[in-house]
Amino acid sequence: MITFEAFYAAPPALTAHAPALLVVGPLIGACVAALSPNSRWAWMISVGSTIFAVWMALCLAGEVARQGVVNYYMGGFAPPLGIAFRIDALGVMMALLVSSVSAAAALYSGHALDAEVRSSKHTLFQAGFLLCVAGLLGLVSTGDAFNAFVFLEVSSIGTYALIAAGERRDRRALPAAFNYLIMGTIGATFYVIGVGFLYAATGTLNMADIAARVVTLGDSRMVQAGFAFIVVGLGLKAAMFPLHGWLPGAYAHAPSLMNIFLSATATKAALYLMVRFLFGVFEPGSDFAYHFMAWVLGPLAGAAAVICSIQAAFEKEFRRVLAFSSVAQVGYILLGLSIGTTAAASAGFLHLLAHALMKATLFMAVGGVALHFRGRTLDDFAGAGRDAPWTMAAFATGAASLIGIPLTAGFLSKWRLIEASLAAGQIWMVVVIAISSLLALAYAGRMLEAIFFRTAAPGAERAKEAPLGVLVPLWILAGFCVWFGIDASLPESIAIAGAQALMGGRP
Amino acid sequence: MSAVLTHFNYVAVIVLMMGGLYILLSTGNLVRRMIGLAIFQTSTGLFYISLGKVSGGTAAITLDAVSAEGQALAARAGAEQVARYGVEGVIYSNPLPHVLILTAIVVGVATLAVGLAIAVRLREAYGTIETDEIQALDRVLTAAGQVEPAP
Amino acid sequence: MTGYIPGFDANLALDAILLVMLVVIVAAIAATHRMLSAVILMGLYSLVSAVWLVVMDAADVAFTEAVVGAGVSTIVLLGAILLTRGAAAKVSGRRRFLPAVLALGVGAILIYATLDLPDFGDPASPANAYVGRAYLEATGNDMGIPNVVTAVLSSYRGFDTLGETVVIFAAAIGVAIMLGFGERAMADRTIEPLAGGPADHHVVLRVAAKLLIPIIALYAFYVQFHGDLGPGGGFQAGVILAVAVILHALVFGLKDTMAAVKPKFARGVAALGVLLYAGIGVTCIVNGGGFLDYDHLFPRHIEAQIPDWILGPADPAHPHHWGQHFGIMAIELGVLFTVAATMVTIFYGFAGRSMEAPQPGAPRSGAA
Amino acid sequence: MADALFWAGGGLAAAGALLALIGALGVLRFPDVYTRIHAASITDTGGATLMILGLCLISGLSLVTLKLVLVWVFIMLTSPAAANALANAAYSAGHTPWIGSFRIMQDNRKGGSR
What we know:
The complex is a heterotetramer of chains A (507), B (151), C (368) and D (114). With 507 residues, chain A is mainly α.
């Protein structure tokens, strides 16, 4: 694991409480933002508390590098009585991802909100955004199964309304948000049912404790049902392939701030929780989790990577293309996990990081141009490359990474995935990744073709360069896309540490 | 007791869940869907509470075993049970599911409020709250290449 | 009082009867096509399940279900059908089959798993024998309050409750983003209050409301501060307090209520409640404990100087009770603030909306 | 003594329940909205009063009795006011009360009240 000494120069008292402060910081920020007098204040609070969260995540990274696993007991009560946060290398990876993407999104939001949301609601919007951030950070840090549900809902309930707030530009945001609400709540309720069965079987809610007790139960039907309901419930939240129907609409019509933040983090946090259940709770006890991954998760992930890429290739609207592509890319991550080796899992996590970066870049570029521009379809963006060269160059960087062109982050993660599947003898996965990459070339190529090689129809509304406040976070993200393609030691060490924490020493 | 009797509670609660899920999925009316969702969520709570019931127990509010109420409870449960499962002479039901479901109920009402608020906005934007009609309206507009912002 | 009829467990019989009633109500909701009936039945469902919860010894949950499920949910649902009406529900034939199959499938899996569950009411089941029992045994020593549910809710699992308070706050933000705070209702000068107008048919209602509102508010505070000893606590009290405001709005008109309890004030209080809760947690950190570790709520040197007449003589066996007592009281107050303010905000959102989009013959406030 | 009080209280509570049942039947059987409100409210208040009286007898003189009395006061305040508001709303909505003999009501049923 790389060293973070340079970053976690925090007083030890702060470092010791970093797990709690990671969540509570944005939470307090949300309350203060809701109380703040105008949107400028709210924006500054939003940026401040997300940067605070990044700092805390870095502190945690240092702690995890030193101790391996950080446990933090809420209220001073050791589990199973109390709620414990349990953060390992994988949790730190997710915390870093969520907090840094949220900081970039918060920086970006200063301009975006003015264009997209009624000014009287800016403070509320920032408050809701910070609640989502706090919810996701809690979700990735908690070691308590029911506490995870609470944080899942904290982030979701904020999300529903913030997606629906996209109505001001596009009323389709409303049915999309409603649909997401229904599906998300069914998913959360399934998760609660699953946790209920586990609780009935083991009598405890702490995940480590459940894992220790599930081992002794063997093939109990309660455990099987708990497994099924948790996987389906979190699969709904994570938009796993056949359950992804809510995602394209919700992402495509949301305000661009939510769009960037959600596409990079929300489904991945749910995915992370599912992975923790699969590997941390069920897998040690019996092999049905293993069979499930090989025979259900893998094929579904492959189908997602191909089918959703095809759907993306036939979409006309920019954001919908990108949203379908997200489902396909989640397929890659799951492919890596379903192989079940440490190398494959680390490749999956590397792709998770790379995908978060490039999707954030892509959505931010589209959102940045759309601040003063109502275009949404491929045709509308014709000639945008000439009108907004800087923004669209960043878009092209992200798209190159999406396709997997060498020297971008996406190339390396796909390469690692192919290596891992070859090592595991899963030739079909290589084929799937190749086909899906070709399809990515098709849909990303269509977008790039429209942007750079077509000229705008005479009289059509023209795109405008995004303001500097958008370009800065945008190019930071795009820069990371390239940097991680050239020198991937940082994300790879994080991903490998995460995979090792997850797999616990398996090959 | 037979399995039917010992598991009657669970089965009844599951029937409630199925009812909620059916109402949720079978209708296109958004408000009705929220009602179905609320039933589905609440019945999950009832499942937890069923798990936490202890026969012969009382609510988890500490009682004095020698008080009249404590005596009556002990008489009902039987001395052997009290000795085995009681805490300081009184059998209580399990408080943990109660705490969890308190949380779940509150989450449920939060979801309900936000969902209904979105439904109200939908009615203002589309003039209907039927899924079919909303989809039809969207298809028409998307085909025409225009998307209206909500009023 | 079952002892009077030997061999007959009244609780089990009640349990069965109430569950059958619930199933019948759900079937009726599925069958009815009228939205109003569905909403009323939904309120009935909550009420019956509250009674069932009492039979299951879940007094706190029953209380919450009664005030939240049968109270606030019904009001919000009524407001929603008022604002969305004119769109009659119709169940088309093609939508019946697949949902039924799905619901039956889920039910089948659940019932398959249920057969392995421990018997209903088994005191030795893992759920009841492990952590649940540990709470019952430890609460007296750790916190020294009689209501174990309150102890678990606000101390052992206090972090969950913080999350729950935040969820409620998020709902307030969500509804306010969607529907606003009813600002336009305040600006609208043309609308007269329901009572006191020229054709006042509502003398009885007004008198009753005037009598009831103080009683309801008083009761809310009783529930709040009695939560350590009996069923009750911040959530229930918050909802009850909000109901007093809602009743005022229904009888005296939204505008008068908004003049008394300003929407902005409600929003601020909702945020303050969460801040208070999180602030207590951070105070515990500052004083050397973990987050929400009420044992460290007061700095040690201050705790040592608190005179006996305030807190009673120090108990050497349980030195930290006062921190726990105060911590629980303070966070329950935070919950009260947030819940009450949120419920009022949600009501304002829905009730104010009907004025923004007036429809022919619409009653004047959201849930009248 | 305790036994006698228990049975007396139980009897009162049962009578209250019976009254509520009769009220429910009335709601189903009465012809128009006002008579139905009348049936519901009177039997509701009366039935609840009987039940609370019965419960008071069962519980004996304690804090519980006081709480029951408070509940009764609350019901006496709310139930009639609610019935009044309901009737008021029905009147505002344009429901005219049936006036005349029951036979006429039955004859007019088809045309009629909801």
